[in-house]
Every structure is written in structure tokens, then in C-alpha cells.
Amino acid sequence: MSKVTITIDGLQISADQGMTVLEAAQANGLYIPNLCNHPDLKPAGLCRVCVVKMDDWKIAISCKQPVKDGMVISTEDPEVQQIRKNTVELIVADHPMTCLTCEADGKCELQRVAHYVGITPEGLNRYRRKVRAIPIDRSNPFFDVDHSKCILCGICVRTCDELQNINAIDYAQRGVASFISTLGAKPIADSRCESCGECVVRCPVAALAPKGAQEPMREVKSICAYCGVGCGVMLGVRGQKVVSVQGDRDNPVNKGSLCVKGRFGYKFINHPERLKTPLIKKNGKLEEATWDEALELVADKFSKSKGDKFAALASARITNEDNYLIQKFTRAVMGTNNIDHCARL
Ligand code: SF4
Ligand code: SF4
Ligand code: SF4
Questions:
Q1: How far apart are CA 254 and CA 247, in angstroms?
Q2: Domain extents for the chain?
Q3: Domain range 132-213, CATH architecture
Q4: Atom 8 in ligand 1: which residue has the minimum CA distance?
Q5: Which end of the chain has fewer CB atoms < 10 Å from its terminal CB, N or C?
Q6: pLDDT value at position 131?
Q7: Which residues contact 157 (CB under 8 A, 6 or more apart)?
Q8: Residues paired with residue 171 on neighbouring β-strands, in sequence order
Q9: What is the arithmetic mean of pLDDT over 194-212?
């Protein structure tokens, strides 16, 4: 790929031809505040926070502006500072100030941007109007939708369209009345949303927030155990408990994406009713047994059930090798072709 050289705030950097100014800055460790940009999505140029001055005269949206050799960019020009400060004050003036009790506190892009551009109480008072009163949509079992915190960046809409091809949500109404909505403004649980949560993990604020999320104390790399795809996950652990799951962006199988089961279906791990030892029915009652007792009983029953009395159902939650062994055992040892497999759980 051919390279170009551009200057950002007096610093010469090298960038790939075809990159945007924002991408070039980020690739070189330079921060340009932005809200609607996400590395997985096409640039949209919606929030207008990433403005820069180009070649000393033109105000450009850095997420949409391709790099050109010799280009000179200023991110701290007074006109740029004023535009992005006004833009961010307009967004924050319409936003609840509940950071300390908010799911996104400490990792919120709006907090980061507001702090960086230096919003002022005077600016907020100038623009403030009543925080919109759309009730929180708690219909989805895994995440809530709080419109009062939405900054209309459109990342959720583009995620659902560009990455998931589901198109469950879009902008509704116009101007200050705009909000993110399902078709017919139905509760999200009654829409075509598949609860994958891909929009939730990309929302830069807490307008889309997982229910009952807890900050983990540490993260452990693992593989999702639900099906044979083998998606990489980062399990968030607190004490002895798994409290969150994130897709592992370094895993080549899923590159950070997960389905609803892998992302939200982790509560079984610590569920008090989870079976941890085999149970054997004695006098009509299930009683805890050792693995040796259980395996002996199974072997005994199997030896009395050879031929077509026997059937095996293999699982997507075990490895290919284990599945192979089950069919081999069924055919070669039990003497039947009654073997099937559930490809997904
Ligand atoms: S979304 Fe961000 S800015 Fe808004 S209340 Fe939560 S932490 Fe604060
Ligand atoms: S819900 Fe989140 S991702 Fe969607 S537009 Fe609002 S702030 Fe952006
Ligand atoms: S959870 Fe998935 S399907 Fe539902 S709106 Fe978000 S991206 Fe679309």
C-alpha cells in the first residue's frame, strides 16, 4: 500500500493512501475527539465532533476526509475548538447528569470528549432544555434502552445494518424530536431485534446498557461453549464469579462478535442449581453419586441395550473428535446407526 506524509499539529506522520485523517491520527496514537465513529463501521460524519482545520483554511470532518500527501492538519485551531465545544455542549445540554450511577461511568465516550473539549456550565445553561421524557425500554431480557442518554450517533443503527444485516432499529422523527426506534416504535423485545447485543457493546454511552452489568476484577480468555463455531470470549471475573462476557477481538473466528447466547447466557456458570456431580435415581429419588458409580451404571445399562434399542444424540458443545468417537462407539460397539447430532443449542 502506498504511503503519504501528512502533518498533524506540527507532527509529521505517515499514513496509508485511502485512510481518513481520523484513521491516520489514531494509527499514530493521536487523539481527535469523536463520537459517531467506530472502527468496525463505515464513517458516517454525523456527530461533527471530529472537525479539524485543513491546510490553514478549510474546516473538515476528519472521519470523512481522506489523507493527501503534504496535507497540514490542525486540531487545536481556535475556530475548530469553538465548533467542537459548541457541538459537544449542545449534546450534553440535552443529557441527564447521572454519571456516578451510570453503567457507562469511567468508560463513556461522551465523558471523555466533554472533558477533552472543555465544556462550561455557561455553555450548558445556554443550550439546556428539558431532558426528553421517553420511558426506558426494559422489555429486552438482556439490555435496557434509555433514550435520555442517547446522543444519536447512529452507531447502533449502522451496527445492526452493516454488521448484522438485521435492520431492527433506525432513526424516527426529525430534528430535536429524533430518537432511535424499532419499526412502529414497538418495545425492542417485540421487534425483529435478535438480542445479539452487538449494538450494546458499541454504544459510546449508556443508552444501550446490559442489565445488571458488573465491572470485572480481571478478564480470562476462553472459548464459548455453546456451539461448534468456537468463538473467542473474554470472561470477566469478580471473586469466584463470571460477571461479564466480551467477544475476543483477537480471535480469528469471531473477531469480537458474539450471538445472544455467547454474550448474555453466562449466568448458568454460577447458577446454584447447576449440576456439578452425577445423580443416580435410587428408590425414585435422584441422589448424588461418584463418577465411578455413574460410569459403572451407564456401562451396565449399555451392555443390556445393544442394537436398535440404543440411540445416541451427540452435541455441538463437544469437540469434533468427541463427536467422531460417539458415532464410532454407536456403530462399532452398540451395533446401530441410531446416531444424530444437534448442530446448535
Ligand atoms: S452516558 Fe456517560 S455522560 Fe451520560 S450519564 Fe452515563 S456516564 Fe454520564
Ligand atoms: S443508542 Fe447509543 S449507539 Fe445508538 S444512537 Fe444512541 S448513543 Fe448512539
Ligand atoms: S441487539 Fe443486535 S439485532 Fe438487536 S438492535 Fe442491536 S444489533 Fe440489532
A1: 8
A2: 3-126, 132-213, 214-274, 305-342
A3: 2-Layer Sandwich (3.30)
A4: 99
A5: N
A6: 62
A7: 169, 170, 171, 180
A8: 180
A9: 96
**pLDDT confidence tier of residue 18, bands split at 50, 70 and 90:** very high
Domain pair 3-126 / 214-274, same fold:
no
Mean pLDDT over 195-211 rounds to 97
What values do phi and psi take at 231, rounded to 5?
A: -65, 145
Nearest-5° angle of CA 36, CA 42, CA 44? 45
CATH fold of 3-126 reads: Ubiquitin-like (UB roll) (3.10.20)
- For helices 78-93 and 109-117, angle between their N-to-C axes, nearest 10 degrees: 140
Give me the sign of the Cα torsion angle 171, 174, 176, 177: negative
Task: Ligand 2, residue 202: give the atom nearest the CA.
Answer: 3
The chain-wide mean pLDDT, for the chain, equals 94
Concatenating the DSSP letter of every residue in 162-173 gives IIT----EEEES
For 75-124, what is each residue's pLDDT tens digit?
Answer: 999 999 999 999 999 999 989 989 999 999 999 999 999 999 999 888 88
Distance CA 272, CA 47 (A): 46
- The rounded Å distance from CA 297 to ligand 3 centre is 46
CATH fold, domain 214-274, is: N-terminal domain of TfIIb (2.20.25)
Res. 344 pLDDT band, cuts 50 70 90: low
- The total of other beta-carbon atoms located within 10 Å of residue 322's CB is 11
Ligand 2 neighbour 207 (Cβ under 6 A): yes
Element (H, E) at 129: none
